[in-house]
Amino acid sequence: MADRMQLYSARGSGGVAVEAALKLIGAPFDLTDAYTFNPATPQSGDKVLAANPMRQVPALVLPSGEVLTESAAILVWLAEAYPEARLAPAPGDPARGQFLRWMSFVSSAIYSLYWVKDDPARLVPDPAGHEALVERTLERIAWCWGVMDGQVSPGRYILGDDLTVLDLYVNVVSRFRPRRTRFYEVAPKMAETVKRVDADPRLAPLWAERMG
Ligand SMILES: N[C@@H](CCC(=O)N[C@@H](CS)C(=O)NCC(=O)O)C(=O)O
Fold it and tell me: What InterPro entries does the annotation carry (predicted)?
């Protein structure tokens, strides 16, 4: 049995939110890069199949051998497994409901759409339809960010004055297309919080190295 966690992730992927959480927690882990979303590197992407038949990163293998997939679940699980890091409102905390709501929203309403955006031929065989599909998918993503921004009441961070894994998640996914400039337009309240997380000295080197 391994004594460290193993994380399958990739530069520029949602897995970097998990890398950021592990960094703040200070938990040792081994990193395996698997570039699942780059058709030019199929063998790299295939590496994650050892842990995730969905061929997606992130996937976290615990020292017991148990596998966790799904970015939101991994982030919530890490926050609970390492409560001393204070990366989520605990069960019973008044902010818990909104925490779970928005973790799930980012995963289901936004992140899942990249399966379509990254390879529109998965749903539309005719290349003539790809540009419109990508454009409309990006519009939907921007609209969802706007909906979320209209419903949250940030303090220094999205849920108030404490940084949570939701901030890490939004920080990373908001860098994907349609990218930050658009995100700042549609989500002006969260714009301030993501910039604060960008500048966090504990995380800035990670962002530069893994999301630059
Ligand atoms: N539902 C998954 C989605 C993960 C996902 O889409 N990961 C991307 C990288 S950012 C990926 O591996 N894409 C390859 C694919 O979907 O084929 C999660 O939340 O972890």
Answer: Glutathione-S-Trfase_C_sf, Glutathione_S-Trfase, Glutathione_S-Trfase_N, Thioredoxin-like_sf
Separation of alpha carbons 204 and 9, rounded Å: 18
Instruction: List residues near ligand 1 (CB under 6 A).
Output: 13-14, 36-37, 55-58, 70-72, 107, 111-112, 114-115
- The pLDDT score that the predictor gives to residue 1 is 58
Burial of 61 by CB count in 10 Å (0-12 exposed, 13-18 middle, 19+ buried)? Answer: buried
Q: Which of 111, 122, 123 to mutate to test the pocket of ligand 1 (most atoms within 8 A of CB)?
A: 111
Question: What are the chain's domains?
Answer: 5-85 (3.40.30.10), 96-207 (1.20.1050.10)
